[in-house]
Design goal:
Blueprint lengths: L2 H11 L2 H21 L3 H30 L4 H30 L1 H21 L3 H15 L2 H12 L5 H7 L7 H5 L9 H32 L3 H29 L1 H17 L14 H19 L2 H16 L1 H4 L5 H53 L5
Helix pairs in contact: 1-3, 1-16, 2-3, 2-5, 3-16, 4-5, 4-11, 8-14, 10-11, 10-13, 10-14, 10-16, 11-12, 11-13, 12-13, 12-14, 12-16, 14-16
């Protein structure tokens, strides 16, 4: 829930640095409470602060990425971000376990606080996008001659959007004060924007379904230990890491409509195959191999669907901003946008284990996979219908 006010404050204040640093400081405090807390209340407070920090850092961080690289390379940049994030998610539990066994819990939290401190220092060294842009503009104006000046006048007179597109995204009539305070709400009138939020919700549900069911299924079917279950996740996570950057380039090159459609369409049969290792026709000696292959295919699908919804929401937002510059302000509303995206994503992370647990209890692991596959196929169809408008 905190992702929404975090995005609002970042856009209203116009200073990404201050909000981002606040998020990192909250993470430092939360980590310290985890390290030294001895009561349930302290641990709950630490967990709440940790969630608040994640909401701030992700919402503001993605806004900073878009401002830095632009829309043309946004997918590629996000692909790299998600790849490094996946590597961290994969290696952190392993390193944490090794440190815990070797030197105890204090060393684990000490290293976590050290990494956060390094992140905080690096953020202090980053030049704000607006400051860098102002410096570049002043240098260009100083070096430009009459020819470039006349060319710039011609460029300034050209509309940012084609006339028919501008009319479609133009906000007309009187606007209420609360809508002026959060202009991103206007984007929810757009079918592509709504679809992008739906894909984020669905993607998060699928991810959390894996997190909730792989350990129990591996224990029931394969009698795996905790370490073996952790290694089993490599089959799912590795494709996301390897193909993340490449899929981001595909989104930039071919658009969100086709990549999202292909991704969810590919993922549908892969999810339906999740019950395959439990079938009696599969020899017990190769059940683990078959399960790893199915998880790897699902990982490829997750790599493909990782970005289209996020990039689509940013694209729609940019069109509304170009058509209504006065309403969206000088700094835009991208932190608000990613705050809403985080809200839908974390809602999916919450719903995924509940839905998957219910389906697994009543229909079995294979039946659960089939239902999630059907949902993925439905999202593929809706993505083709509503995402990536042909304007």
């Amino acid at each position: 829930m905190f992702s929404l006010p975090a995005g609002y404050l970042a856009d209203r204040l116009g200073c990404r640095r201050l909000i981002y640093l606040a998020g990192l400081l909250l993470l430092l405090v939360a980590t310290a409470l985890f390290a030294f807390g001895r009561s349930i209340l302290v641990l709950i407070v630490a967990r709440v602060l940790q969630g608040m920090s994640a909401a701030i850092v992700w919402s503001v961080g993605f806004a900073m990425v878009l401002e830095s690289v632009g829309k043309e390379k946004f997918g590629e940049a996000l692909g790299a971000v998600y790849s490094f994030s996946t590597i961290a998610e994969l290696t952190a539990p392993i390193l944490g376990g090794i440190l815990y066994d070797a030197v105890g819990i204090s060393a684990v939290f000490a290293i976590a606080m050290g990494i956060t401190s390094v992140d905080l220092i690096m953020r202090l060294l980053v030049i704000e996008h607006d400051v860098a842009k102002d410096n570049m503009d002043s240098n260009e104006s100083y070096l430009s001659g009459e020819e470039s000046e006349s060319a710039s006048h011609a460029t300034e007179n050209e509309p940012l959007l084609p006339r028919d597109v501008e009319i479609k995204y133009k906000v007309c009539g009187d606007t209420k004060s609360w809508l002026r305070a959060m202009p991103v709400l206007y984007c929810f009138r757009n079918a592509s924007f709504l679809m992008s939020m739906m894909t984020s919700f669905t993607q998060a549900m699928i991810i959390s379904m894996f997190d909730a069911t792989i350990p129990t299924e591996a224990d029931t079917l394969l009698r795996f230990s905790s370490l073996q279950v952790g290694l089993l996740f490599i089959a799912l996570v590795a494709p996301c890491t390897i193909f993340g950057w490449f899929c981001g380039r595909l989104v930039d090159k071919h658009g969100t409509k086709y990549i999202s459609t292909i991704g969810y369409g590919f993922l549908a049969p892969c999810l339906a195959l999740m019950g395959l290792p439990s079938l009696d026709v599969i020899d017990r000696n190769i059940k683990a191999i078959v399960y790893c292959i199915v998880l790897a295919l699902d990982g490829v699908g997750l790599a493909i669907i990782n970005l289209p919804g996020f990039v689509e929401a940013s694209d729609v937002m940019k069109k509304y901003e170009a058509a209504n510059p006065a309403l969206f302000g000088d700094h835009g509303c991208y932190a608000q946008l990613y705050g809403f995206n985080s809200f839908f994503f974390f809602s999916g992370l919450t719903a995924g284990p509940l839905v998957s647990g219910f389906l697994k209890d009543h229909l079995g692991y294979g039946g659960m996979g089939i239902r999630f596959g059907i949902a993925s196929a439905a999202v593929a169809i809706l993505s083709y219908m509503f995402m990536g408008e042909d304007l």
